[in-house]
Amino acid sequence: MRGRRTALRGLLYEFGVTLPQGRHSGLRQLASNAPEINDAVPAVMVRLVDD
């Protein structure tokens, strides 16, 4: 599971989105900044992350 979180952080980083380390803090920031993140990454990636 940790590998998937790290991969997600790495992919988001490629689009200029940084998330803190740690499952809870990273997911919390992902949820609270969803509109900005959705604007920063391609739509196909948004759909993959939402699933």
Plain-language structure description:
With 51 residues, the protein is an all-alpha fold. Helices cover 75% and strands 0% of the residues. The chain has helices at 2-14, 23-32, 34-40, 43-50. It is globular, with a radius of gyration of 10 Å.
**Sequence of secondary-structure elements:** HHHH
Count of alpha and pi helical runs: 4
Question: What percent of residues are in strands?
Answer: under 5%
Based on CA inertia axes, which overall geometry fits?
A: globular
- What kind of sheet is the major sheet? none
The Cα radius of gyration reads 10 Å
Structural class label: mainly alpha
- Low-pLDDT ranges: none
Average pLDDT confidence is 86
State the assembly state of the protein chains: single chain
Helix content: over 70%
Please provide the count of β strands.
0
Distance between the termini: 15 Å
Helices and strands, with pairings:
Layout: H1 2-14, H2 23-32, H3 34-40, H4 43-50
Question: What attributes characterize this protein structure?
Answer:
51 residues; mainly alpha
Quick description:
This protein has 4 helices and no strands. The chain has helices at about 1-15, 25-30, 35-40, 45-50. The two termini are about 15 Å apart.
